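Researcher: Predict the fold of Ovochymase 1.
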Amino acid sequence: METRIIGGQEAWAHSWPWQVSLQLSSMPACGGAIISPQWVVSAAHCFKRYNKESLWKILAGRHDLDKPQEPEEQLVQVSRIISHHGYDTKTKESDVALLKLEHPLVFNEFVRPINIWMTPLPELLKCTITGWGSTRENGPRVNRLQEVNVTILSSNTCNEYYNGRIRTSMFCAGKEEGGVDACQGDSGGPLSCFTGTRHELAGLVSWGVGCGRAKKPGVYTKVQQHVQWISEIMNDENTVFEDDLAEEEDRCGKQHLSSCERTLGLAGISVSQGGKLQVDNVTESCPFSWPWMVSLQSNRRHYCSGALIHHRWVVTAKHCSVSAKEDVVVLGLHDMNQKSVQTILVDDVISPMHDASFPPQSDLSLLRLSVSAKLGPKVSSICVPEEDEELDDSWTCITAGWGKTRATENINPSKLHQAELTLVNETACGQKWGDFVNDAHICSHPAGSASCLGDSGAPLFCRKHDTYFLFGVVTWGSWRCNADKPAIFTRVPEYSSWIDDETDDQ
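Model: C-alpha cells for Ovochymase 1 follow.
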C-alpha cells in the first residue's frame, strides 16, 4: 500500500495558501492544511513511525521546496502531535492527526487557513488535490507544488474497486480510467472543494493502491466526520491530555514509564575456574517493561515466546509449532506464577511458503488471535520495520524471554529476563555456520541462542529514537551454548510486506 500528484500540473505560486509541507528533520515528508493560526491537520499515518514532536516542523507559504528560502515562507516547530485515538493502522480508519504549532502563524495573502466542508459531499463533484509528492508511481518527489482535479466517486463504486474496505470515515476521488491521483509524499495533504465562493477542506490524502491506476482511485479521510474531535482538542487542553493517553496506548514500540530501573548489560559467555559455562549480564526485566512480549502456552505450560505486532496478531518462530484453536497467547505477563492480564486463544497460524530446507529458511509464523488484545500500560504492540531498514551501530538490540537456562542460575526462570546483544556481521557469521546463513538471517553474540538464554521464539527488538522495532525471532544456535557459534535470528524486515499482506486482508 502506498500513500499516494499524477496527471496534474504545477500550481500557481501561493494559490493554495493553506497548504503546508511537513518537514521531518528538515526533509519534506507529508502535506497538511492550516485550519487556525496554531493548528494544522494532516494524516495520522505520517506519524506512525516518527511521533516525536521535536523531529517535526511545518513550512507554510512555500512554493518551491528547492529554493533555499522564499520571502513569504514561515517555518514553525511542532509542539504537539495528536493522532486520532480511533486510527487503525490496518483498516486506515480515522487517519487524521492534529499538529499544534509552537507559535501562531501570521496570516497574509500567502499563508491562510481553510474552513472544513460540512455538508454531504456530492458525487461527481470536482475537487483539487495539492502536494509535492511524486508525479509518477515510485518516482522522485517534485520541488514545486503540484495540483490535479479529481472527481468524488460514490462509496458503492469505490467499495467495488476496493472489495468493501471503504469505511464511512473515508471517500474516494479520481477517475475510473486512472491517470489522476495523489501519490507518495502527498500523504496528509488537502483535498479542497470549491463551494461557489471559496474552497473548503473535504479530505486528506490517506491511502490507495499504486498511483493513478485504473479502478484504484485515491482514498481520502473525510474531514467532516472528525470535526467534533478536532474542535474538542483545539478548545480544551484537558481533552488533549486524555487523548494523549489513548494515543499512547495505540503507539507501537513504546516503553511505558515506570519507577523501576534495571540496567541492561551486554550478554557474554564465561567459563568459571571449575570449567562451568555461564551466561553473564542477564537480568530480570522490570515488570511490563516490554509490553509486546507474549507467552505461548499449551495446557497452561509456557513453551515459546512471541511478540505482539497489532492488537490481533503475534509473531513467533515457525518451529514453535503453535496449534490453532488449542494453544493460547498470554499477554501482560511478567511472572509465570502470577495471573496474567489477558489470555487469548490462537485462531489461526500462518507461515510463509512451505520450506523443507534445514535449517528452515523462513522460521516465522503469524498468529491471528481470536479476539483483539486490549492495549494499555501492560500490553502494547511493537513496530515492524520496513523491508529496507538496516541495522547499524546507531541501534541498540535486546532479547527477552522466560525459562530455565544457563543464564538463569541467579534469576528466577519464571520471571521475564532480558539481555542486550551485540550483533555479528554476516561474513563472520558465515565463517562459523557456512551456507546456512543468508540475507534472511541476523546473527548475534552466541548468548542470544535458546540454549544460552532459554526461550524459543524469543524476539530481537532494537531501539532508535525511543521506539522499538521487531528485527528478529530466535531460530537456531549451538545446542550447548557454545561460545564460538553466533545465535541466528530470522530477519523480520525480510518478511514485512508478507506480514502487511496477511494482516491487511483479515
